Amino acid sequence: xxxxxxxxxxxxNANQALPNLVTSxxxxxxxxxxxxxxxxxxxIDLRDPMxxxxxxQEVLMAELGFAYHNIAxxxxxxxxxxxxxxLTVLRHHPDQSTLxxxxxxxxxxxxxxxxxxxxxxxxxxxxxxxxxxxxxRGADVLQWGQSYLAQRx
Length: 153
Fold this sequence. Notes:
Blueprint: H1 4-7, E1 15-18, E2 21-24, H2 29-37, E3 42-45, H3 57-64, E4 67-70, H4 80-92, E5 98-101, H5 106-120, H6 124-134, H7 139-152
Parallel strand pairs: 2-5, 3-4, 3-5
Antiparallel strand pairs: 1-2
Helix pairs in contact: 2-3, 4-5, 5-6, 5-7
C-alpha cells in the first residue's frame, strides 16, 4: 500500500506537513483515488468552486467517500473568518489522514502557517519555512497567515 505522499507523486508542491497531513497543488482524479487507497479520508479544498478543474471534484469526493470541505480562499476572502473555518475543520479531525490543497500550494501555506504554530508548537520561522515547502509564494497570503497568528498568540 502506498502512502499519501506517494499518492501525490507529480502533484505540484506535494508535501508531508505532519504525520496525518499532506498538502499539495491540485491532484488529478487518479491521484485522489490513490490518496483514498492510501488512507486519506478528509480533503480540504481551498480553491474557489468556479476555478477550472479536470472533473467535478465534489462529485468525485462523494463517490470516493471522502469527508470534503471546500473553503474558498481568494483575494477577497483572506479573512480571519475563513482561517477560522479551515482551522476548525482541522481541529475537529486531528487524527484523520487529511489532504489540504489549492491549485499550487500557495494558499495552503498561508492558511496552515498559524495552525503549525498554534496547534503544533512550531516557531514562526519554522512554520514559515514549512509553508514555503507547501508552495507559499504570495506576500498577501503570507501576511494573512502572519496577521491571524499575531492576533492569537
